[in-house]
């Protein structure tokens, strides 16, 4: 991607080249090219935005060889008529933009410092509202949660577990230990409470707080008494332990 971008910057006139995140692309198209914007929550995850000064960082854009002239205008996450979008001929005001996990934190009404949420999907994401304070927690991501109607920005810490729901899919489809995702509960309830298994769910590395992309999944403690039910239960337990790793 970096090589392709550098080639594009060299070969194309910067007057007809612009850059942005997915929301930028969607808004550009839905506004018929009238608005080239992103919000602070998305900008803060580009590695080029100064989350303290709330502006594109000259140092970082120079480091990544990105001309600031092609970057989108950064706006609040909510404000009247951030853009007017055209849907089937209807002109609709767009009043809010937000990154997915930050939107989830807001949707869970985690409005006070210390409020947290965990979203479970293919992976899982724990976010904690840190208020107006930029909290640089070791081995966690720090980003902007949202900025509303000209008010000060709200910040958050995030920890990511890469494999949670995908673990259930793996034991269902690849190992065929269960016939459906729902069956994992019944199987786990039939497991021995002292099964002694430790399941490391690193099917695509380990995220926070370890950040080990080269880590590989492992199951410790298998004996002649280990059952299918025990394997399923250890897989479910591994999800809980990964979230505990992040919270701790």
From TrEMBL:
Residue limits of the Carbohydrate kinase FGGY C-terminal domain? 117-248
Pfam families found in the cross-reference section: FGGY_C, FGGY_N
Q: Which UniProt keywords apply?
A: ATP-binding, Kinase, Nucleotide-binding, Transferase
* UniProt cross-references to InterPro entries, sorted A to Z: ATPase_NBD, Carb_kinase_FGGY_CS, FGGY_C, FGGY_N
Record's GO cellular component, any one? cytosol
| Record-annotated Carbohydrate kinase FGGY N-terminal domain positions | 18-107
- Biological processes, Gene Ontology terms: glycerol catabolic process
* SUPFAM superfamilies with a match to the protein in the record: Actin-like ATPase domain
Q: GO molecular function, one example?
A: glycerol kinase activity
Q: What is stated as this protein's family in its record?
A: Belongs to the FGGY kinase family.
Against PANTHER family, the record matches this protein to: GLYCEROL KINASE, SUGAR KINASE
Protein name (record): ATP:glycerol 3-phosphotransferase
């Amino acid at each position: 991607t970096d090589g392709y971008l550098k080639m594009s910057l060299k070969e194309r006139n910067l007057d007809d080249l612009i850059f942005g995140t997915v929301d930028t692309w969607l808004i550009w198209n839905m506004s018929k090219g009238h608005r080239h914007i992103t919000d602070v929550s998305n900008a803060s995850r580009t590695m080029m935005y100064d989350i303290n000064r709330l502006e594109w960082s000259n140092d970082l854009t120079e480091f990544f060889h990105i001309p600031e002239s092609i970057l989108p205008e950064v706006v609040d996450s909510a404000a009247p008529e951030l853009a007017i979008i055209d849907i089937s001929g209807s002109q609709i005001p767009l009043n809010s933009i937000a990154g997915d996990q930050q939107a989830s934190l807001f949707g869970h009404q985690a409005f006070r410092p210390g409020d947290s949420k965990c979203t479970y999907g293919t992976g899982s994401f724990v976010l904690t509202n840190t208020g107006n304070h930029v909290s640089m927690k070791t081995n966690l991501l720090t980003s902007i949660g949202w900025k509303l109607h000209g008010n000060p920005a709200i910040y958050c810490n995030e920890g990511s577990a890469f494999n949670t729901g995908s673990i259930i899919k793996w034991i269902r489809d690849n190992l065929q230990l269960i016939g459906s995702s729902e069956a994992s509960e019944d199987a786990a309830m039939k497991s021995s409470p002292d099964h002694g298994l430790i399941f490391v769910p690193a099917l695509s590395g380990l995220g926070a707080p370890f950040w080990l992309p080269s880590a590989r999944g492992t199951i410790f403690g298998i004996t002649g008494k280990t059952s299918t039910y025990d394997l399923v239960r250890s897989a479910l337990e591994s999800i809980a332990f990964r979230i505990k790793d992040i919270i701790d």
